[in-house]
Amino acid sequence: MAVSYFYCIQPLRVSSRGRLFFSNGEYCRDNHKRCCYLVSSSAQKSEKNLCLESKVEKMLENVKWDDKGLAVAIAQNVDTGAILMQGFVNKDALATTISSRKATFYSRSRSSLWMKG
């Protein structure tokens, strides 16, 4: 989130429309003026990302992981349904797949993530 002006050190509040702002009546660092500065931000995008992250976390909690923290993942052809490959994913690989929209698997031999294609 980009903040264009940040003069005071105080809590930010979020309005019902997703705007971030400083509370009225808070004193600034120099204690000479009262502050009420608006903060420009991309709150709508942030809210969408927070909503997506929340849904991803819920989904990750419902996956049956094995004792090594892995689950079997199947890549299929979207048109025919043919199975293209079978691999393994950990939580990071599955979250990366969802956020990047590119198939990401976990390599057991290298202990690292890799992207298909």
Automatic annotation (TrEMBL):
One of its GO terms (biological process) is L-histidine biosynthetic process. Its EC number is 3.5.4.19. It comes from the Eukaryota. InterPro entries: PRib_AMP_CycHydrolase_dom, PRib_AMP_CycHydrolase_sf. It catalyses: 1-(5-phospho-beta-D-ribosyl)-5'-AMP + H2O = 1-(5-phospho-beta-D-ribosyl)-5-[(5-phospho-beta-D-ribosylamino)methylideneamino]imidazole-4-carboxamide. Keywords: Amino-acid biosynthesis, Histidine biosynthesis, Hydrolase. Pathway: Amino-acid biosynthesis; L-histidine biosynthesis; L-histidine from 5-phospho-alpha-D-ribose 1-diphosphate: step 3/9. One of its GO terms (molecular function) is phosphoribosyl-AMP cyclohydrolase activity. Pfam families: PRA-CH. Coiled coil: none annotated. Residues 85-117 form the Phosphoribosyl-AMP cyclohydrolase domain. This is phosphoribosyl-AMP cyclohydrolase. It comes from Liquidambar formosana (Formosan gum).
